[in-house]
Amino acid sequence: MLEGCVPWPESAARTYREQGYWNTDVLGTWTAPAPERRSGTALVTAAGDMTHEELDRAADRMASGLLRAGLVPGDRVVVQLPNETSLVVLSLALFRTGVLPVFALPAHRSTEITHLVGTSGAAAYVCPERVLDCDFRLVAREVLDRTESLRHVFVAGDPGPYTALSSVDADPVALRAPDPEDVALFLLSGGTSGPPKLIPRTHADYAYQLRETARLCGVGPDSVYLAALPVEHNFALGCPGVLGTLRAGGTAVLAPAPTADVCFPLIARAGVTITSLVPPLVPLWLDAAEWTEHDLSSLRVVQVGGARLDPETARQVPQALGCTLQQVYGMAEGLLNYTRLDDPESVIVHTQGRPLSPADEVRVVREDGTEAGPGETGELFTRGPYTLRGYYRAQERNLTRFTEDGFYRTGDLVRRTVEGDFEVVGRINDVVNRGGEKVPTLEVEEHLLAAFPLLGAAVLALPDPLMGERTCACVVPKDSAHPPTLRDVQAVFKSRGVAAYKVPDQLVVLERLPMTGVGKVDKRALRAHLDS
Ligand code: J2J
């Protein structure tokens, strides 16, 4: 396995092989489907449609182009593209060559990309020309100035001083297939408090996730998956997402935005059967469905996950959208929990489901380290055939995030019903879950302290009717006569090149922060103070 990664112990790996969880599947090679499917539609996008055969050929050409550009297997490439054809072609091409994508989110800006290039030692960065008011060629300039490993910047669109992604193209050459048990891609952690950590996922582990999820969701050649969320995120990438659907011979539809006005016409035009959403989108879709002229009758399954869905909204989904709701409690680190399509309504509405695989080991652990019983709250620990054993190049961090016997400490507080279904009740780590987008509080505090003359800063989650949680920043200015305003904070975060979703939603100016006995900010007391 790639240096800097933590392999599964050989005994576990042997079991996963012997029991068929891991096989010789290599990501990206299954777009050469059965002959009768080759003319079937693989991708539907604003720019046009593509058959499986065309996608297969485009991926082969780009794979050869990447090698010709000088990339070699094992190199890392930070990939940040909108939901467009080029993102899928590039991903398949990278998988086929053994060059490793590090999937950044579309909302990331120079601060985050610099961090990702720095930690991964990436040889290339792939970005769009521009999205809304952001010129990504300027982001690339900043990243190049602040990092040392980048040899290439590929731009989808007008490349400016860099290389056009469309020029990464060559007549197909024979490719050496990657080792199925080596790393295929890196995802980003959402659930921990600092800047995102890199999650290595192997061909074998991710391919298993794709196969098993497609089976559980009934996804096959006739399925049409709508990627409303960014494809770089595990949910839309592989649960079953775009990759699981393509692998099954189905069709993936790429939406440029997750709003009903963009997605409903696509559902009607492409006959979408399954899609996935984060909770804040659900009420908006339900409202829009009441008035829409678009035919949504092809929808069979709507998956909702990333943050807690409230039961009242959950209850309305089947009738309003004419389909089954599936709650998904997942994490890029691995473990996926799903409600099953034939579960009773009470399970689908009130729980976040149960593990995907019979080989997923889950423990609910009380604060004192003992095992919690049914209905009791504890932290979820897990290990299994598609759950990482360590973050990339994070030896020290791994000591605290994993138990000695390899369980990943999720930081999630959960309860398990007698039937074995999870309810997510909170987190022990300091992360604001802003409707599925994870805001690391530590990182926001660091930006505040660096940008303003402050004696202290503490960021916490407050309940929010639409987002579930919103980000509240409490600051103590050095000069109490001139405290920063929320507008100042917004402007500074933007100028520092920080993703917009990390900008605090609310700013509270205080004279002092409550402290614990050991000199840490007492967030519990702070929360109580804000509530009062
Ligand atoms: C409450 N909290 C949830 C849920 C995730 C599918 C779906 C989601 C993700 C994801 C994903 C939740 N209810 N239904 O990767 O493949 C919170 C938990 C978890 C963290 C992981 C997928 N579903 N969460 O959200 O890596 O706190 O993955 O540990 O971004 O989101 O975040 P992330």
From TrEMBL:
AMP-binding enzyme C-terminal domain span: 443-520
Classification via Pfam families: AMP-binding, AMP-binding_C
InterPro entries for this protein: AMP-bd_C, AMP-bd_C_sf, AMP-binding_CS, AMP-dep_synth/lig_dom, ATP-dep_AMP-bd_enzyme
AMP-dependent synthetase/ligase domain boundaries: 40-392
Name recorded for this polypeptide: AMP-binding protein
Organism expressing this protein natively: Streptomyces phaeoluteigriseus
